[in-house]
Write a structure and sequence with these properties.
Order of helices and strands: HEEEEEEEEEEH
Strand content: over 45%
CATH class: Mainly Beta
Number of helices: 2
Helix content: 10-25%
Structural class: alpha+beta
Number of strands: 10
Oligomer: single chain
Radius of gyration: 18 Å
CATH superfamily: PCu(A)C copper chaperone
CATH topology: Immunoglobulin-like
Length: 149
């Protein structure tokens, strides 16, 4: 019995993924009309580790796929381009914002409404995982808010 318990404990420890020391601030997912199947997430992430953290995959139960995108000036046009990975340097912050880096949540599994929250898992190339939960903020409320300030 003790052998089986010890074996089970070792298996459990082997399945636990290391959590990354990433700090997320000012995060939100843009709420859109219920007919939309794609939205974006914006936030600031700080890497408090001693080593760079290479983000190579983001997953969420709210979407069938999540991609890292950036806006790039190409001559006279602003183009959105997918990135396969993103390095977050040790001790530094990276800002995901409209018109710059951002996450695209595609194939939404359900409409996102004001007050909902979205869980995201950030995976590094070393297998570390960081989790964050962002509130959904409606585009209608976002525009209304900015108009009066």
């Amino acid at each position: 019995m003790v052998k089986h318990l010890a074996a089970a404990m070792l298996l459990l420890v082997a399945c636990v993924r290391p959590l990354a020391a990433l700090e997320f601030n000012q995060g939100f997912v843009r709420g859109l009309p219920p007919t939309q199947t794609t939205t974006a997430a914006f936030f600031t992430v700080r890497n408090s580790q001693q080593e760079s953290w290479v983000l190579n995959r983001v997953i969420s139960p709210a979407a069938s796929r999540v991609e890292i995108h950036e806006h790039v000036n190409s001559g006279d046009t602003l183009q959105m381009r997918q990135r396969e990975s993103l390095t977050i340097p040790a001790g530094e912050e990276v800002v995901f914002e409209p018109g710059g880096l951002h996450l695209m949540l595609m194939g939404l599994t359900a409409p996102l409404r004001e007050g909902d929250s979205v869980r995201l898992e950030f995976h590094s190339e070393t297998g570390a995982v960081a989790e964050a939960v962002f509130p959904v903020i409606s585009v209608i409320n976002e525009h209304h808010h900015h108009r009066h300030h």
